[in-house]
Design brief:
The protein is an alpha+beta fold. Helix content is about 45%, strand content about 20%. The longest helix is centred in the first third of the chain and has 31 residues.
Length: about 450
């Protein structure tokens, strides 16, 4: 329950900021061109509002709705979410949206998208300034990676060190690397000290999207953080030791846990073969020197040690700090890269597996960390701001991109679409968007129960 509340709070905070900035972009451009904004509403407010007020000598009412699906600004003289068609039947007024030149109306409509994108760039810049950038170089991961069943089915093996995709070197494990792999014909890996090739099928991304398990995860070495008093490990293991082999076979931390679990499960069969399943021989590195020791684990098949879980102590970590002014070009680069990656992956949305992966508020909430982490909160907020900017600029009626499309038509044809056409287009777009919203949240329900 605590995890749900933490994620829900982060989601509400993030969406609130994104909606205010987006609608603020429309609002500021509208006021810049002296267009009257009748209402500025955070979230939607069908039937009633949670809070509203209207300052003296202001044309704008500010409100908070109860349905957290977005928000809106009601701009005078425009067919929008309010569907105020009566206003459009009145004589055109100089403070109305419809009375302004097409280029001004265009800027008012793209203001929300522009502000969301600028917000993402600013947040990315401040993240780099405050926390810097750090990542694990996949080519230098000493034990390689563990792969899921889909990856193994096409030829990857646990312990492979990822090198390149179609001769383009990998740098870090992120969404871009997965896209590189999915779009590649050949991935090069280092396997048992030798270079090997894995040939990627054309439907690799669809296979990955169908997975509920990550494509791969780093294999962590088994480094001892501390030794429990009066435990079997006190026979020869010290804090800081790095265990590299079990009974002569190279292992990672996950390998050791899996092997001991199998020994416990097959204990009776091993005893019948005169093998003591609890007796193990460890090879470890201490101060650069490799040595071995034997010990007998306890009845729970545990040594009595605590493993180190600090990533930067276990794997080669690249860290880069940014000054205040250095952070801005780096933040812009990160934002543009994120946008390109998201746009590139949109093609998979129209596949069967892509439609299944479409998620609603449950999916969005799940991307936030289960414990409060400001770094991750701001990172995910910037990512959602990129998504919101891109989705809103799509040429779909009822979205900003739909209005932009009709404005381009007007500028080229030199005549406006009729009010009746705009009404039908707005209604059609809203039906499509609500249908998409229902489908996305239905997918969340299916994933939760099944």
């Amino acid at each position: 329950m605590e995890t749900f509340l933490i994620r829900a709070l982060q989601l509400i905070m993030s969406l609130s900021l994104l909606v205010i900035i987006h609608e603020g972009g429309h609002f500021l451009f509208a006021r810049l061109f002296k267009v009257r904004v009748e209402k500025f509403c955070l979230f939607f407010d069908p039937w009633f509002t949670l809070f509203k007020f209207k300052p003296k000598r202001s044309d704008t009412e500010y409100a908070v709705g109860w349905l957290p699906l977005g928000g809106y600004v009601k701009i005078a003289g425009m067919i929008d979410e309010s569907m105020d068609t009566e206003q459009m039947k009145q004589p055109e007024q100089p403070w109305e949206f419809r009375s302004k030149p097409a280029w001004q109306r265009l800027l008012i409509m793209v203001g929300g998208v522009l502000f969301n994108f600028l917000l993402a760039l600013f947040i990315y810049s401040m993240i780099l300034f405050a926390w810097g950038d750090q990542y694990i170089k996949v080519q230098e991961a000493p034990l390689g990676m563990d792969f899921n069943e889909t990856a193994k089915a096409v030829g990857f093996q646990d312990g492979d060190i990822l090198l390149s995709a179609d001769n383009v070197p990998f740098v870090r494990y992120d969404g871009d690397m997965l896209s590189q792999i999915a779009d590649a014909r050949e991935v090069s890996v280092l396997r048992d000290g030798k270079k090997a090739s894995v040939y990627i099928p054309e439907d690799m991304m669809q296979r990955l999207m169908a997975d509920s398990v990550r494509f791969a995860s780093f294999r962590f070495p088994y480094v001892i953080d501390s030794v429990v008093v009066n435990s079997p490990a006190q026979a020869g293991i010290l804090p800081g030791d790095s265990i590299i082999a079990l009974d002569g076979k190279s292992i990672s931390f996950s390998d050791f846990k899996q092997t001991m679990a199998e020994r416990k499960k097959n204990a009776e069969a091993l005893l019948k073969d005169s093998i003591d399943p609890r007796l193990i021989t460890l090879t470890y590195v201490r101060g650069g020197v490799t040595d071995t020791t034997s010990l007998r684990v306890d009845s729970a098949y545990l040594m009595g040690v605590v493993a180190s879980l600090t990533t930067d102590r276990l794997l080669p970590m690249v860290k880069k700090e940014y000054t205040f002014f250095e952070s801005f070009p780096a933040g812009v680069s990160l934002g543009v890269k994120t946008l390109k990656g998201y746009v590139g992956n949109m093609k998979y949305l129209f596949s069967k597996e892509g439609a299944k992966q479409l998620g609603g508020f449950g999916t969005i909430g799940s991307i936030f960390p289960a414990t409060w982490d400001w770094h991750q909160f701001w990172y995910m907020t910037a990512f959602l701001s990129i998504i919101l900017a891109f989705m809103n600029i799509l040429p779909i009626p009822a979205l900003d991109g739909g209005h932009v499309l009709f404005l381009f038509y007007e500028m080229i044809a030199r005549r406006k679409p009729s009010d009746k056409f705009m009404e039908y287009a707005q209604m059609t777009g809203m039906v499509l968007l609500f249908g998409l919203l229902i489908w996305a949240n239905f997918n969340d329900i299916l994933r939760f129960f099944f």
